[in-house]
Amino acid sequence: MAGFHELIPNVIKRRINQKRPLIKVCHPDRPPIEVTFAILDNAVNRAAWFLTEHLPSDEYFIWMSQSDARYLVWIIAAMKTGKVVVLPSLSNRVSANLRLFETVGARHMLYGPESSGTLEELIDKASPNVAARPGLSLEEILSPEPVPDFPFNNTYDEIKTKRFMGLHTSGTSEMTAILMHPDVPISPASITDVINQSGANSLICPAVPIENMLDYPPGLEAFSRLKHIGYVGGPINPVLGARVAKVTPHLYSLIGSTEGALMHMNYSPNSENWDAIRFVEVGQRMEEVLPGLYELVFPRTQTIDRLYSYFRSYPDLEHEYRTKDLFSPVPNQPGWWRFRGRTDNWVAMANGYKMDPTDFEAIMTAHPDVRGVIVGGAYRFRLCMLVELYDHLLPTTDEEAQAALDKLWPTIQEANKSSPKFGQIPRELVLFVRPGKPFLRAGKGTIQRQLTLQAYEDEIDALYERVENGILVSDLEPITSLTPEGLTPVLTQLFQQALDSHDIDADTDVFARGLDSNGVTLTVSRLKAALRSYGISEDILHGINISLLYSSTTTRSLANILSEYLSDGSNKVRSEDPDGGVSDMLAKYLAGSHHLGTPQSIILTGSTGSLGTYLLAALQAQPESRVRRIFCLNRATDAASKQAASLKSRGLPPAQVSSGRVVFLTVKDFGAPLLGLALKDYDVLLAETTTVIHNAWPVNFLLPLQSFEPSIAGLVNLLELAQKGARLPAVLFVSSISAAMGAARDVPEEVLPEPAELVLRQGYARSKYVGERILDSWALAGIANKRRAAVLRVGQVAGPVAAGGAWNPWEWFPSLVRSSKFLGILPESLGTSSRVEWVPVDELSKIILEVVDEVTRSDDDATSGKTKQRGAKVYNLVNPHAVPFSDLLPALQEKGIADKTVPLETWIEMLERSSYNQKSTAHDNPAVKLLDFYKSIVPHHGGGGGVKRNVNGETKNGSENSKGGEDDYTWRVNNTLHASPTARALKPVNTEWVKLWVDRWGF
């Protein structure tokens, strides 16, 4: 068995005397070509000399041919010659391959002589940038005529990081592999001939050719003689797969990826679980991203690094590789999973719903006339379907398309029954592929969904343009007049359908009933369609936008506003006013609406992090009479799925997305104008927001201040939003105690007046300080306008102490505990961090909400009522009951972390030495990655920090053996204690909490 570091050319050389064929290349009309290791070694030498003769040294080159044994030969020849072979697919579009050539920078292309006709257009368009020439035919490359050995003397360490192959599309063992001859097309007949000729008892093949065998009786008979059939490259159609499973003893699935490798599976001995997968446990995990759907994720561990190449394909990934493959557990069969598609195959609709098209498409493709189906219509009100019939059935006229639709309609109705109401497809939105423009497919036959949808983008847009207005109003009563009485019925019907409730009348507060921004957007589109059908011009319709709906909360009042707008001739064209005059209406109808007790609509940035997740959960736990809507602003485009996983992993209730109470908005750049949001979304925030909790900030203590400028610009943009907001939102900035570590050790609850007072010379602390100063200045400038602002200075956030959830094991203290167990020793102190004034994250989220409540009720008066608050109010959010770390050591010792304790400096020295131990891994010894941080908390003046207990709203610590360390601060917490009952009742960090954290880490 080859060692992990043994190089493939050497493995072949070592097995050169093995007589059993490694590969058989089959042709229906010729004897098979048997490829032994000796022939393979000779072929590799021949290819290597060919490359040396015809290409410059150390050069990228492209190989394109039919899929056959030459690919293996060219790959190994590239290894021996130090070149890089790039392997595009023949089935790619010419334009796609040209872009690939340019991206890779390859200047030479070799191709199979038999593929010259297929590649003629590509070769022509790639010239002169890419020089193309015929390579070796299969017979030439596998000729047994000996050639001189091509020297290869490299060692693993010398070339372990050198590239040798570039893969663009999805594509040995002791058993002989059967490959097709390059001039044999993959068809049911040729597959059957190869099975019969080779005597093989197993077949591994893409799913599509297996499905095609069902209509070829000799092929099914050949299948019945095989012991095993494995399908790769994508799932097999459920209906067709069930038929195959009936005729073969063992049908099973293989799954892998170009970026990683073939995954390790456990298989059943028969076809019972033909459509399911059971993974060998190597450290991967299934992470729930939507209810009942799990994404396969590979964390970076030594085992996974040995088995798969994800982190060599993507060297910038530090912690995990997300496959984007979705699975659902098989009921009553633990460990078995069914493939459910890809995260990027789901269709996001305009109404906020997401549609999984897997079942729908499976039912449709089981129809004998259908070759392929794609459900599309992203960000539309209704979904559409693109249908590819078999070539002889492709419609060429509208009449033929209508006849084909009539024939398919019963199957479409059946598929619609499997879909939720919002995901059902009407007749009007079925589009047939026409001759000359088939679906784009990968080399393995699977449909390239996104590329095909892009290719049909114009046709899909035209389809919606023709029918969308009719679909939007198809189930609405027609408008009878533009009077309030004429508009009220249709508006009521619109809101009833948006809220899926008939219990809505003209005086119902639709926002209190849960109408969210998606519902508002959809209602505006349908309202404009109804008015368009009535005959209202596009110029007037331009002025009807989401701000108009937010200007009133009931159908009756909205009907009055809308009637006034439609009847007032001066409002019909306002090209200079981008919102069509709605701002004046908003000012009129929102005046006086800012009263105490109004339900809050809160912006929360950075909701997917640890603190953000608990803040979201705490906000959701409030009654809707206090918190009506939560806008989660995050940079990640998949924030909703990350949020779902984050909440679930902590045992917290899911985000209330379906009800519209929680809305996710993607803000890729907080520093961009309008936060980079669409105008309609920004308008919603302006109209609704009452409070902004700004929790998003990069945590990196190594970056200079200038690297945080985008975040600082983002804070300014949020202040601009608050300044323009219709409901005068309060702004709370989540800062850090590091922003207040100044020359004065008695830290008040106010912003430091001068930057020179900062002690910490790190960009992170300075950026938080700049943020505090900007917020304070903004609040001072707006005293007359009653601007409300608060700085929330957060100290060390600890793990949760309520049920569920764990402290992130990769943070500095959990890593210290894990590495202490690996080293067998614990540090006696935490140096300048020995004062433990930590606040559990779940308790901190409650404290912050209580502070929010005070700030939003304060109307800029100090809550004591004695003084008027000027500028931003500051809250130091630290535990008012600090304890020394030495009080917690017995809990760590009791949990078996280590018995022996040593000075912190000694512990750091042993940690550093352990980094040279080959048995040390990031999993077992994670603190090695944080060595610089632990060195930074070694006291400059000796001794770990001692603690002086909190008295009268202060928490203080000092160094036991010196005049003072970096953490010798007294934190004033009067504001925090006044605002927060939770803070007043907070316990000091204790041994029970420490034991709980260790249990949840599983150390």
UniProtKB/TrEMBL annotation:
Keywords: Phosphopantetheine, Phosphoprotein. Gene3D superfamilies: ACP-like, N-terminal domain of ligase-like, NAD(P)-binding Rossmann-like Domain. Residues 952-962 have a biased composition (Polar residues). It comes from Daldinia eschscholtzii. This is Thioester reductase (TE) domain-containing protein. Residues 604-848 form the Thioester reductase (TE) domain. Residues 944-969 are annotated as: Disordered. InterPro entries: ACP-like_sf, Adenylate-forming_Reductase, ANL_N_sf, FAR_NAD-bd, NAD(P)-bd_dom_sf.
